[in-house]
UniProtKB/TrEMBL annotation:
Annotated TM spans: 6-26
Pfam families: PAS_9 (PF13426)
Keyword list, A-Z: Membrane, Transmembrane, Transmembrane helix
Gene3D superfamilies hit by this protein: PAS domain
Residue ranges of domain PAC in the record: 116-169
Protein name, per record: Two-component sensor
Native source species: Vibrio ishigakensis
Record lineage: Bacteria, Pseudomonadati, Pseudomonadota, Gammaproteobacteria, Vibrionales
PROSITE patterns, sorted: PAC, PAS
């Protein structure tokens, strides 16, 4: 009986001993693996040397899963994060933000997943929340065909990207300015056709009837045409010299009623010369003072009123 119990105790003790030894071996293996990993990382850093430590470009070393194990000084200068802030984390989880392009993030994810080299430009965020652009190059490190880690190099290209965005903005503005000028030029050319056609009709009318009464009427018509042509030429010359990027509006206080009165006088004269019925109503308050470029406003109204009168007279002819 005691012999059986003794044998069982020995068996249990042997099992416990094996288990304890196995745990100790496993622990030692883990410690050894960590030491080997640290040694290999130290070896990598040693090979990179002080150039990497103090380079202007940020350098990040991650494990094979993409989690940060080391960064250089430039990383902290560019991102605001210390190694302790990001160690064990994936860089994208810390640095990417609201306006980071999803397509670029997916490309990075796929490259890391497939242990592929990749270069992208991506918007990241500083620790204080300020956005900045980097040129990012990620290289997988393989030993005997097995992925060991990734090395990422980041270069701050914020100044260049801002310049690119500004150039695109200026190009868009230039195209818009050209399109607007072309459209307005077409309108002005169309305005020129009307008085020129009217002059042809007046000339034909004078050829058929050269009486004194008709000559006076023709003279009045020529004066109107001349006025329209001069105004149109002035508009073309003004348009030619307009630079929308440096366009200035000269503001001053004025009463809108004075502009309306000038327009009333000029349009009444035009209407009278062309035998057009004109009803002019001024319902603006006399007590309101405006602050803007009165000359520019007057020119705009004058152009469109003349244009309408021109069209009406053209229809009559």
């Amino acid at each position: 009986m005691w012999k059986v119990i003794f044998n069982r105790v020995i068996s249990v003790g042997a099992i416990l001993t094996v288990a304890i030894v196995s745990l100790l071996v496993l622990k030692k293996n883990k410690e050894l693996m960590k030491l080997e990993a640290d040694l290999e990382l130290s070896s990598v850093r040693s090979r990179l040397g002080e150039v990497a430590e103090y380079a202007k470009d940020a350098i990040i070393i991650t494990d094979k899963h993409g989690c940060v194990s080391w960064t250089n000084n430039a990383f902290t200068q560019i991102t605001g994060y210390e190694l302790a802030d990001v160690e064990g984390k994936k860089p994208g989880d810390v640095l990417q933000g609201r306006d980071t392009e999803i397509d670029t993030v997916e490309r990075l994810h796929n490259a890391v997943k497939n242990a592929q080299q990749i270069e992208v430009e991506i918007l990241n965020y500083h620790k204080n929340g300020t956005p900045y652009w980097i040129e990012l190059a990620i290289t997988p490190i393989l030993v005997d065909g097995e992925l060991q880690r990734f090395i990422a190099v980041e270069r701050d290209i914020t100044t260049r990207k801002n310049l690119e965005f500004r150039l695109k903005e200026l190009a868009t503005m230039a195209r818009a300015e050209t399109d607007n000028k072309s459209h307005f030029m077409s309108l002005l050319i169309d305005e020129l056709r009307v008085p020129l056609n009217r002059l042809k009709n007046i000339n034909e009318k004078l050829r058929l009837d050269d009486s004194a009464e008709n000559i006076l009427e023709v003279h009045a018509g020529i004066n109107v045409c001349n006025s329209f042509i001069e105004n149109t030429i002035l508009s073309i010359e003004t348009l030619e010299n307009i630079d929308l990027n440096n366009f200035r509006i000269y503001k001053s206080s004025f009463r809108f009623n004075s502009i309306i009165e000038n327009l009333r006088k000029s349009t009444t004269q035009i209407a009278g010369e062309q035998n057009l019925d004109l009803e002019f109503k001024d319902e603006l308050s006399q007590s309101v003072t405006y602050y803007s470029d009165s000359s520019l406003i007057n020119s705009i109204f004058s152009f469109y009123i003349s244009s309408v009168a021109n069209k009406l007279e053209d229809v009559r002819y």
